[in-house]
Amino acid sequence: MFSPGTKRLNLSSRRGSQAAPGSPATPAADNRVPNRPATGTPAPWAPRLSVLARASAAKEDDKSGKVDPTKPVFVGEFPHVIRDEQAILHQKHSLGDTCISGGLDHGTALSWIICGDKVFIWSYLLPSASKNFIALTIPSNLSEVEGAGRSISEGSSWLLCFVKWDFTHKSTRRVAQQSKSVGVVLCNKRTRAVIYWPDIYSDIKSTPVSSIASEEELNAIASPADENISTKRQRQGSRSRSSSAGPHDFNSLIVSPILNSQEECAALACCSKGELWQFHCSRHAIHRKRVYKCAQGSLSQGNDAVQSTGGKGYPRSLVWRFHHTSLEESSRQFFLLTDHEIQCFLLKFSSDLELTKLWSDEIIGDDGELGIKKGLAGQKHIWPLDVQVDDTGKVITILVAILCKDRVSGSSYTQYSLLTMQYKSGLNISSDVGETIQGRILENKAPIQVIIPKARFEKDENFLFSMRLRVGGRPSGSTIILSGDGTATVSYYYRNSTRLYQFDLPYDAGKVLDASVLPSADDSEDGAWVVLTEKAGIWAIPEKAVILGGVEPPERSLSRKGSSNGASTQEERRNLAFAREIAPRRASSEAWDSGDRQRAIMTGIARRTAQDEESEALLSHLFHDFLLSGQVDDSLGKLKNAGAFEREGEANVFARTSKSIVDTLAKHWTTTRGAEILSMAVVSTQLKDKQQKHQKFLQFLALSKGHEELCTKQRSSLQNILEHGEKLAGMIQLRELQNTISQNRSTAVDSSYSGPEYETASALWDLIQLVGERARRNTVLLMDRDNAEVFYSKVSDLEEVFYCLEMQLDYLVGVEQPLGVQVSRAFELSDACVTIIRTAMDYRKEYHLWYPPPEGLAPWYCQLIVRNGLWSLASFMLQQLNDASFDTLSAKPKIFTQLEALTEVLLEAYTGAINAKVERGEQEKGLLEEYWSRRDALLNSLYQQTKDLLRTGQQDFEGNKQDEIHKDLLTRLLGVAKQHECYSTLWNICCDLNDSMLLKTLMQESMGPKGGFSYYVFEQLYARRQFSKLLRLGEEFPEEMTIFLKQHRDLLWLHEGFLHQFPLASETLHELALSQDESSGLEADEEAESGYRDLTLADRKRFLNLAKIAALAGSDDDTETKMKRLEADLRILKLQEELLEHLDEESKQNIEKRLLRPEDLITLCLDSNKPGLTLRAFEIFAWTSSSFRRRHRALLEECWKSAADEDDWGELYRASMADGWSDEETMRILRSTVLFQASSRCYGPEAETFEEGFDEVLPHRQEGLASRDLECSVEAILMQHKFFPDAGKLMLTAIELGSLQGMSEGEDGAVPME
User: Fold this and answer.
1) Residue 654 gets which letter from DSSP?
2) Where is this protein chiefly located (predicted)?
3) Is the pLDDT of residue 1144 over 80?
């Protein structure tokens, strides 16, 4: 692994001339090397065991169709021209003397290889690289640098970086649209020559810009020691010369575009001499200068002559802090790795590219908590080898090698570790910081991770410096280490231990040149590791291969000649055996519906039991026998005994078999002809073969009674099986649609926008490419297949069409294209979506007897991913329909038709999802609100466009008259609006047509919850205050009107009167007259609508009088009681009017439009301190209910106290004693007191009250209280008066006299009664 290459016998000399049977062949050119074996597949961990395991596993795979999950996956071959160039190099040079450079760039998804003077560039995401590559030629004037004595064509001497000019594109489009504007900066490590191609995709081929190091530069960096090294190298062979690095050789290069410039970029390179060089590249020239020089672990600016005393071979590595740039950034930060610290710099994109050092942090020092502790026992030397940064720019990973000495044996060994550091908590250094920051910046994110505790001691330091680190691949948190001998090792911390997975190649396949990460198909984390080899093409390492094929770190290093630790081979055997029992567990269906739509990753590893294996094998055998003989025998009993019906959902063996049928990837589909696959009849034939086989599978289920068993026990599994049939039918129809589109485009008869601006490729073809590309990236086993081939094979993932439609809609419709092109492309996408879903619906209708009971089961096209995809396209078409210019006015009818069809399937998807949620008892409020919002937006807009089309005199598509257009358009729209209860659209149509008959018909047909459409009509009429129309509708919809008017009682009594429900009308009027804010029980907004807040006292009296009339009209047993209550309330209203006359203007304005409660009126009387108002308080008490008097007895007592205080009883007592009143005089004078009048009103023979009298609540005398269970009386209240000791007899005489005698209206001043 980390050991330099050691010559060994090739496979054919070790194992014979014949390759291992069944071993998959690596695509390669014809053998040009003697005795080269026919295969060169990557070996897993131990070469000897891996070849045997791979050979045996290959035999099994050929029989079972399964793939070894621990194997790497072949992704793509080199372009054929690279094979030709490699053959030429082999002819020119002796074996082992040729070495090439190559690499993978994650940001652009481009791979590159240099052979001789050619630079080949292609996308490693494309399976057919031979048709899509760029070949650049290194200028001939740079083939030999005079005085340097080195050939610039030595392949291993190059550093290459890509410059992505279209970095402003959003991340959501990076997958759909590969970079079409990319520059290349090429730098020779040894000669320091720099070559710049501004845009490799430009149609105008221009000569690259180049710059070579001047003699002064080379002489300035050369020292006597360097000359000795150079002389010594000249004595060595060419192999040694090509592998050793000089002190002034560049070892790292980074490039960044300069914002707001014309294809200008800034490149930075560092060398082992301690220097940092800057290159300003433009279309016309490259300006180079040394910006820093490292000395004694620190950096000095400019060209100052500083003797370098830093560590040999440092600085080692440069890396940008953030991988992506944006238009807002005017500077970028980057890290520099030295022999003991990490330094951070800021490059400002000014005219002179200003460089500033921000901070430096020690990673090797005396404090082990802040990095690696040095000076430990047995520690001899520490080498930081490479550094990488994650996508957030906060986590830094450093590959470290430590030379140690065993104190027991005295032998030396190397320990390889990963140091992970992060910015200190709460510290955020933005990109616009321009000054040096002091203090500690980094802290350990996790304890140092030891990859190999005791590896072989490497005498050649250049081998250590050849190691490179990559981060970001799957499994999450894994890293990959590339060594100089051509191996790649994935390190993954799994279950509290480090696991290693080695990607090794036989020598005949060359070295591993570079590794990168498969870009994500969406905005989630990146994909699997991708490895570029020297001769065997590009390979991917699946996530599961790392988890299952990884082993514990060995005691000694594992190089190409194998492991010295035999335990690793035993562990690999166990891993391989375990892998055969493992099945990937797909992300659950709940994840698809959560709104968090992430790619289908391996969420865990579920062990498949022996019973699962047995039942699946049995089902496959029985189904195969059924295909041959048509007989099922006792299949049901055998499957039950095998436990085939015990798993639910997608894990069920029947569902798995069904999925394997529809997802079969036929070998004869494999092609590199790209779009030509769509014209192959084999595609349609294969899809129909799948459909026939799936039908046979359904027949097998029916005849074997397995269908009944699934229908009763595993409903979701049976639904999955039938949905596979739906998707397969949809895929077949989609294939036919693609054929039709291709034919129409070739004849140019179906497009109204055919012209030079019209794209050659259709939108549907681009969508197929996106879905296939996404499937390939999520399943690396498919990376060597064409996108269209993968799309038409992965039938069960048909919903991915709608995911890509949502995420990549701008790219699919071509927002940068003319409006006509956008509309035409949207038509194709709409046709595709509608075709898929309607075909699925038709399949469900045709085979409805096969489906299980639907309660709680939502069809696949009702999932969130499908709804969002449909809505994204519908909203785009809605925008075009509303914003289309006059030039595209002729397209509006077709847009209308397309949007109408799209609306139907979208709303059907929503209703299916809502019904399933309701049946499962889940909360559906949020989904309902989303459904209502999108439904109203779509249907209201469609109706508005219908009116616009009719208003502008547009003709229908078949040339019919306008009234026929009108009827046809409205009929279709009415049907959809009525089905989905879009009442606003139905109302608008009826109003615009002024068709009352249509309105009443719709009201009768649309009887949904809360009265349905009729309730909505009532609301609209009430809001428009069209009360007469509203009440007339009540004649035909009495029950619905009654329900509606319960919230609007100001009209309810009219409707009840029309229905001759006079008692109810009387009650309604009574309630309306007494309604008030505090006690009405209605919401404030409802009261405002009903007009309650605008009622005056006169209005209330009118309502009470109307209530009396209604009560008399509907005479019944309670009429007399109702009349008394109404009369009492009328008296109280009149008392409030009289009370207002005694108040000041301010108080009158506050209460004149309010209905005061009786207790408030009484309190107002008592607080007014005006003569006569106290008696009004007793009058109010008299016309309230007996329950009110009991409830407010304390207030009644206050009234008696106030009545006693109205007269000066002390003066009356003194006058009676001084004048010696007679009995007649005494009675005459007492009759004028308030106590007498109050007693007469409450207890006198002429006293009138509602319900029982005052004597039942508060008797006027103390006698008999105990017998009536009362505690107080008027006499007891008067006894508390201050004048009662003297005038008590007069007081008691007054109340007694009042209870016995009445008062006429003329002389006692009593309130007249009406």
Assistant:
1) H
2) nucleus
3) no
